[in-house]
Amino acid sequence: MPMSKAMREICKEEDYAFLNKQEDTGHERAEGKGLEEDEWRVKREERMRRRKEREQQEEERLRELEEMRKQKEQQWKSHVAELAAEREEALKERALRVRDFRNFERKILEKDTGPGTGCEKTECDQTHAEG
């Protein structure tokens, strides 16, 4: 599992401190003044507990980072969806305005040419398309 630099440094310091203590206790044991087995077990359990605690903290930190990344991604997706909806709405409104304007043009053209001049809808559309 990857660790941050600070966590690696802490682990190294603890390891060196532990190794120095082991060397000291090794000499004391040889002289008959060594730690009792129970004390050694307690220290070992304490080291294991601290190690598990560090691992849990690191896992929690990684979980939080992942959660933040997912949250930002979700915000981005909703932002993009909102922009797309706004653009689509603007295009619909524009198409409606163009259609209304063409209808208005058609009415004006019919008024100008008169009702009996033979300007059919298709002819007006062709005139409009050419002009």
Number of helices: 3
Q: What low-confidence regions span 5 or more consecutive residues with pLDDT below 50?
A: none
SS elements, strand count: 0
Largest sheet: none
Question: What number of structural domains do the residues give?
Answer: 1
What is the rounded distance between the termini? 71 Å
Radius of gyration: 40 Å
Mean pLDDT: 81
Helix content: over 70%
**How large is the share of residues in beta strands?**
under 5%
Give the SSE string.
HHH
Strand pairing plus helix content: what structural class? mainly alpha
* Large-scale geometry: rod-shaped
Region (Disordered): 44-63, 110-131
Biased composition (Basic and acidic residues): 120-131
Task: Explain what the structure shows.
The chain has 131 residues and is mainly alpha-helical. It has one domain. 87% of the residues lie in helices and 0% in strands. It is built from 3 helices and no strands. The mean pLDDT is 81.
Keyphrases for this structure?
3 helices; 131 residues; mainly alpha; rod-shaped
Task: Give a short overview.
87% of the residues lie in helices and 0% in strands.
Ordered list of secondary-structure elements with their pairings:
Blueprint: H1 5-31, H2 37-113, H3 121-130
